[in-house]
Amino acid sequence: MPEHFLRTFRPDDASAVHRLHARHATADLVDVHSTMECLLDPDGVRGEMEAADWAVVAVDASGSVVGWGSLRSWTEDDGTRVYLSDGYVAPPARRHGLGRLLLRESEAVAAQLSAGHTESSPVVLGANASTVQGDRMALLERSGYRQVFTMVEMEHDGSPVQPRQMPDGITVRAATVADARALFALTTRVWAGRPFSTLPTEDGLRDWLSRSQLALFQVATIADRVVGLVAASRTPARIEIEDVQVDPDIQRRGLATAMLTRTLRTLTQQGTGPIRLHTEGHDPAGARSLYERLGFQVVREYHRYRKSLSR
Predict the structure, then answer these.
(1) pLDDT tens across 165-203, in order?
(2) For FRET with 311, which of 111, 150, 185, 223 sits at 20 to 30 Å CA-CA?
(3) Long-range contacts of 70-76 (CB under 8 A, 24+ apart)
(4) Distance, CA of 81 to CA of 84 (rounded, Å)
(5) How far is CA 179 from CA 34, 175, 206, 220, 306, in A?
């Protein structure tokens, strides 16, 4: 059995991790257009690892990086404390226990970090795996994790879409950075009671707006009240519908359909190409059904796993 060692991630490991993923992208069935799991450049790798609670690389006897592991944590809106384990093992190093070692080490760190958690709210371990990561899915299930929900990534082929009529009394305009407070109020209403979620902050929404292509970020208003949004972006890697929200008081009136068809028409007029988005697979608010009616099809599923953390 090959020897592998774990050591703390260093900033200069970022390039090695990036090269590792790039080298095995074909074998890993990496989807270069994905909105869920993109291939990060070295700066992106460094930022993700340095923001984690714990991050290591796995090296072989020659000192070459063959994998990595990380742990990050947050508290969801219902008070649940989540410790999310992530990791990767290059194909040549798989089936030698390295993935199990990385998972076990991350769980041990989570147990240590959670020792000071005195609140009565649940503390759980989390992990993710897509439908093309059979080895990781099997590892998680053998380790006692269970699927709690699934995200689906969907694609539209970019063919022309017939726009739908906007509901009476509603105006649509391009968003501005000054809409951050109104969007926070809207998001608070839309996300109310949603499980497995953490509400973004007003500052986080303001930052998102400041980085967005505002011509593709549409808000719907009644008088001065923002009641809906559709945000899209176009990059060399993908065309993406980033978010769709409709105030609960306005739902079931065709607003989401009208805004989406308007955005899809704009995107297709600017140039052909697949358009991506992701949403909850179990369709709690009918979003997946809406996207399917407009021609989106599922291209990949991403399972979210949980298990209780023993402390």
Answers:
(1) 999 999 999 999 999 999 999 999 999 988 899 999 999
(2) 150
(3) 70/9, 70/106, 71/106, 71/109, 71/110, 71/113, 73/110, 73/113, 74/198, 75/121, 75/198, 76/195, 76/196, 76/197, 76/198
(4) 10
(5) 28, 7, 8, 11, 35
